[in-house]
Design a protein that fits this description.
3 strands, 2 domains, globular, 6 helices, mainly alpha
Length: 169
C-alpha cells in the first residue's frame, strides 16, 4: 500500500521529515506536548509529500546563495514601485514579453515563475510550452538579463544544466 514510501530515497525522507517537523515546531510555538498530535501530522505530511511530489535534486548551498540575489532584487522592486506611486510622472510603459524557458517542465519552472513575480516590475502571467509570459511595468528596460539570472539561479538550486541562452522579446 505504501510501497512508494519504501522506494523514496532516504535523503528525501529525512530532509522532508525534518522540514515538516520544523514547521510543526514553529506552529506549536515549541510546545513539547503538541508532539502527541504533531508526530502523526508530520508523518501524514511526509506520506502525502512523497506520494504527490516526486523526488527532486535540490541543492541547499545554491539556495542560500540565491537568497541574497532575490532579497536585493525584491527590495529594489519595492522601492521602484513605491517611487512610481509617489511620483506620478515616472514613466510606465507596460508590456507583455515572452521569455523562452530552458528549465524542464516541473517544480523548477514553477519556482522560477513564482520568483519572477516577486522581482522589480515583473509578474509572471502564463507558462505555456517552453515560454514564460511576463508582464513588465516598463517595456523599454531590458529585463531579459534579469530573467536569465533568475533561471540560472533556479537551475543551480535544482541541479539542472541549462543550454546557451536565447532570450527574445
Amino acid at each position: 500500500m505504501l510501497s512508494f514510501l519504501a522506494n523514496a530515497p532516504w535523503p528525501t525522507l529525512v530532509s522532508r521529515g525534518l522540514l515538516f517537523s520544523l514547521i510543526w515546531w514553529i506552529l506549536a510555538d515549541g510546545s513539547v506536548g503538541s508532539w502527541l498530535v504533531g508526530v502523526p501530522a508530520v508523518l501524514l505530511a511526509l506520506i502525502c509529500s512523497v506520494a504527490l511530489l516526486p523526488t527532486v535534486h535540490f541543492r541547499w548551498i545554491a539556495f542560500f546563495r540565491f537568497v541574497p540575489f532575490f532579497l536585493v532584487r525584491s527590495l529594489m522592486g519595492g522601492v521602484d514601485v513605491a517611487w512610481r506611486a509617489f511620483r506620478p510622472g515616472m514613466p510606465i510603459a507596460p508590456d507583455l514579453i515572452e521569455y523562452p524557458l530552458r528549465l524542464p517542465p516541473g517544480l523548477a519552472r514553477v519556482f522560477m515563475a513564482d520568483t519572477v513575480s516577486l522581482l522589480p516590475g515583473t509578474i509572471s502571467t502564463e507558462i505555456r510550452q517552453n515560454c514564460l509570459k511576463v508582464h513588465v511595468l516598463d517595456g523599454s528596460k531590458d529585463v531579459l538579463p534579469e530573467l536569465e539570472a533568475v533561471e540560472q539561479g533556479v537551475a543551480r538550486m535544482f541541479g539542472i544544466f541549462l543550454t546557451v541562452s536565447g532570450g527574445n522579446k
